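Incident log, structure service

09:12 report received: a user says their structure output differs between two submissions of the same chain.
09:20 pulled the input from the user's history:
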Amino acid sequence: MTAEATEALGWWGVPLAIIAGTMRGGTPFLFVSLGECLTEKSGKINLGLEGTLLTGAMAAYGVSYLTGSPWLGVLAAGIAGCFLGAIHGWLSQQPRVNDVAVGIAMIIVGSGIAFFFGKPFIQPSAPQLPTINLAAGSVPPALEAALQISPLFLLGLAIAPLMQWFFRSTRWGLFIRAVGDSPEAARAMGVSIFKVRMLSVVAGSFLAGIGGASLSLYYPGLWTERISSGQGLMAVALVIFARWNPIACLWASLLFGGAQALGPALQSVGIREGYYLFNAAPYILTLVIMVFTCSPQRSLIGAPGALGKDN
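09:34 re-ran on a clean worker, output below:
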């Protein structure tokens, strides 16, 4: 929803702008958080998803520009995520290697790859993903603009309950939960810990890469080196807040997306005081979540038993 449309509606445009911004801004949070949820369910932490998000955004924009097909760009973003995920999945399972250290290294690697290969694509304009118009019949232009959503958002809406079903009702979902909760028990069942965790990290990174594609090919719809704004790291806090539940990740992503949309929506109706504070809402929300989930009693609820342990 544009600032001009919001201004035309006055204060009534603010909630519409926040709703529209929630769907736009919540999409990358949704994909990255679902990817991190899948990874952490297997007992691994991937802090490197910030680098994956950047690499996915760059790959999507570059391939869309070179081929003219944004959907090929989305696929390229997912493949780029798989590449980084495979590196992280292998390194993090080596003896005496710490997940957090590997994640920080992968942020640097992913960011470096994105910045190096993305230099030629900062100025050119790449084809963007088409939008779906949910407005039916004759509606005001401002409302129609608010109801233009990305197909990736709808894809994320479908993946969240599908992942919930996958964890609860499939053999591979059982393997992932077993490996994440009790590697010894999973090993006794004949499950390959290395294989399950590797596939979980790669699949989670694939989703994070698609989250990057939603940034560069939908909103804000460009490629810059600062496009992720720390969303990959915020997604880790989001997963903790959601208690490792894919459906809760969906709602938490919408909450973060709405917080991100608050500043621009208020600015569009002339509120300039506290503008930077409103723009900092997602970061403040992340800090508040970490403070309220730091107690041992609360932080263990829903957490995989082997999460963060070297095993």
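09:41 both user submissions now match this output. Likely a transient worker issue. Closing.
09:42 reviewer note: The first helix runs from residue 3 to 9. The chain has one domain: 3-299.
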